[in-house]
Amino acid sequence: MGRYLVTGGAGYVGSHTVLALRDRGEDVVVLDDLSKGHREAVPAGVRLVDGRCEDRRALAEAFGGGRFDAVLHFAALSLVGDSMRDPLRYMAENLSTLSAVASAAVQHDCRRLVMSSTAALFGFPERIPIDEEQRLGPVSPYGESKLMCERALDWAERIHGLRFASLRYFNAAGADPEGRAGEDHDPETHLVPLAIDAALGLRPPLMVFGTDYPTDDGTGVRDYVHVTDLADAHLRVLPLLEKQSVRYNLGNGTGYSVRDVIETVERVGGRRVPHALGPRREGDPAVLVASSAKLRAETGWSPRFAKLEDIVRTAWDWRAAHPQGYAGARQAA
Ligand SMILES: NC(=O)c1ccc[n+]([C@@H]2O[C@H](COP(=O)([O-])OP(=O)(O)OC[C@H]3O[C@@H](n4cnc5c(N)ncnc54)[C@H](O)[C@@H]3O)[C@@H](O)[C@H]2O)c1
Ligand SMILES: O=c1ccn([C@@H]2O[C@H](COP(=O)(O)OP(=O)(O)O[C@H]3O[C@H](CO)[C@H](O)[C@H](O)[C@H]3O)[C@@H](O)[C@H]2O)c(=O)[nH]1
């Protein structure tokens, strides 16, 4: 059994990765300030340190209980639109959060770290699918902040021997297939939960951002990857860190348009998705689809939920069972 620290483990991708680690019998500590995450998303048997990654006392408490085999770092500000309004906060906070956690890891003799990176590193990509050789060119402070984090880790490796994996997720979606966790953001900006909530009548009609993209149906195309498959990728890169640091683009490799997502939600849920057509959202590329060939070849990773319909079904089931998200679980407790 190993010991792992998961920062941001009360959040969406982090909590699903905590479940994957626990399912494997690992010992897990979560460090999360609950600014976006939920206490109820941290499963029983996992210690939650409620504090900020930049806070020395919280770090000392998290690292205090014994040596970690690796740190999985999810905690970050992660809203692209928000970052366009508050660029310096995004740059400063995402870098200082990563730096504080990486320094503490080195100090406590843990030299393995996995970081959540993003497709936003590539900005408006030159070619589809996007492999690791493509030019990095973020077009938002959020993307830029994650690129700075990757560069900081390069230096930490050279100077402190801290090995790292940077996983550049494309569009995380779906929920734990056993119904133990799901997506509950406030504000919610992601397409799949917004479309589901519109269908369930939990939110206003969905606004389709742009119908004049150079895509088959004019709407934006993305690579939706199941959150449990993302969690699995984290587990699979851990053994590689014994030898080297790695960077992988992480998606299913198939693009679906906004209209595809709407139709899929309607099919899965058996209800209409009320929606209106609107202008493009500033900074949105037309198409983002990953090549995860390198990850597949080097770790054997392969998505269990390759079809959009299967991803959407898990998200639908969780939301239909938790119309108030984790707040419902709080009231029931
Ligand atoms: N969701 C996606 O589609 C997606 C895509 C690409 C990359 N990412 C990256 O993956 C990671 C997880 O994303 P998510 O969707 O699960 O986000 P999330 O907001 O659900 O989770 C982040 C968690 O970190 C916590 N947190 C934030 N700042 C903190 C701090 N300074 N100290 C302690 N805790 C802090 C929040 O309370 C939250 O629980 C982020 O780094 C994000 O940038 C997400
Ligand atoms: O209300 C909405 C929300 C989204 N969209 C469209 O749906 C697609 C997906 O949008 P999301 O907001 O769900 O996801 P993004 O592709 O914008 O963002 C994702 O990829 C980014 C990198 O580009 C970041 O990593 C971010 O965290 C991650 O969620 C886009 O074409 C977007 O224009 C709509 O039409 N209406």
UniProtKB/TrEMBL annotation:
Its cofactor is NAD(+). It comes from the Bacteria. InterPro entries: Epimerase_deHydtase (IPR001509), NAD(P)-bd_dom_sf (IPR036291), UDP_G4E (IPR005886). GO terms for molecular function: UDP-glucose 4-epimerase activity. Its EC number is 5.1.3.2. Keywords: Carbohydrate metabolism, Isomerase, NAD. Residues 5-251 form the NAD-dependent epimerase/dehydratase domain. It catalyses: UDP-alpha-D-glucose = UDP-alpha-D-galactose. Pathway: Carbohydrate metabolism; galactose metabolism. The keyword Mitochondrion does not apply. Homodimer. Belongs to the NAD(P)-dependent epimerase/dehydratase family. This is UDP-glucose 4-epimerase. It comes from Falsiroseomonas frigidaquae.
